[in-house]
Design brief:
Elements (H helix, E strand, L loop, with lengths): L8 E3 L11 E7 L5 E7 L6 E3 L3 H8 L5 H9 L8 H9 L16 H11 L6 E5 L5 H10 L3 E6 L2 H16 L8 E6 L12 E4 L6 H14 L5 E4 L3 H5 L6 E11 L2 E12 L2
Parallel strand pairs: 5-6, 5-8, 6-7, 8-9
Antiparallel strand pairs: 1-4, 2-3, 9-11, 10-11
Helix pairs in contact: 1-4, 4-5
């Protein structure tokens, strides 16, 4: 059986207890003209260094997907045809939601690596990717980040089926770590429990504001151990949302398939 693709995490030297990384204050304005100051880290943190880099993650994960999926990944075509059932399910999630919500894109392997560093993921963390698509980022979090559990939740039955086939191939090749959990779930993310979640990623650029508000309400009520939420759109400026229990901690960029050089990424700290 092939050797397990390791996901050991090497910790960088810790700062003295009580020390805080340097921060800057950035002034932004929302769509309604309200000015606010956001305290954010001067530089995106890199507290973790993973022994598996982005290229190593790609070399393990990509062969687990079928040829059509790999070709789409290389060509930048992330709009596979969806069934009428998938489109109807997207429309049913929210009054303003359309099949536009199922427009597909995902973190690049480099982007996912950087996200894990920014979030400082480790063996006590439970990571949820809500709208996980083909599951690449969830699988990479399992293999590379060393988290206790990585969970992907995807509404599309077709994309979920592709993700499950990839996981089955990794399992057959002995490339999963059975000391930690990897779960890919086909479900409406509003139905999740999230009690264990410590970090949640929302690729929400194609979601309508009502659905984003519903998702945040679910997380506020159910994700009792949540520490960080990551979005790729600013909650206030894009959706008009200002949850009192979230504080914008960092605005940076991570690689996405439609913007490999980097797309905006917003890290919110849970402050309730």
């Amino acid at each position: 059986m092939p050797a397990l693709a390791t996901a050991v995490v090497a910790l960088a030297p810790r700062a003295p207890r009580g020390a805080r990384p340097p921060r800057t204050t950035k002034t932004i304005t929302s769509r309604d003209g309200v000015w606010c100051e956001v305290s954010q880290l001067a530089e995106p943190p890199a507290r973790l260094r993973f022994s598996m880099d982005a290229d190593a993650a790609r070399a393990v994960i990509e062969p687990a997907f079928d040829e059509d999926s790999r070709q789409r990944c290389m060509s930048g075509d992330f709009t596979p045809a969806l069934s009428a059932e998938d489109i109807a399910a997207a429309r049913a999630m929210s009054p303003g939601q359309t099949e536009f919500a199922l427009t597909y894109g995902e973190l690049t392997y480099e982007g996912c690596t950087r996200l894990g560093e920014i979030l400082a993921m480790g063996p006590d963390d439970v990571f949820y990717d809500l709208g996980s698509g083909l599951g690449r980022a969830t699988i990479q979090a399992h293999l590379q980040w060393g988290v206790k559990r990585a969970v992907g939740v995807e509404l599309s039955a077709e994309r979920s089926a592709q993700a499950r086939r990839a996981v089955e191939r990794l399992e057959q090749n002995g490339q999963l770590d059975h000391s930690r959990r990897l779960d890919l779930v086909c479900a409406n993310l509003l139905d999740g429990g999230y009690q264990e979640a410590t970090a949640v990623y929302l690729c929400c650029c194609c979601w309508d504001s009502t659905f984003v508000a519903q998702a945040l309400e679910v997380l506020e009520k159910r994700a009792v151990n949540l520490r960080q939420i990551v979005t790729i759109e600013p909650l206030d400026r894009k959706f008009g949302l200002r949850p009192a229990w979230l504080t914008l901690k960092l605005e940076t960029r991570v690689g996405q398939t439609w913007a490999p050089e980097g797309y905006p990424c917003y890290v919110y700290e849970v402050t309730r």
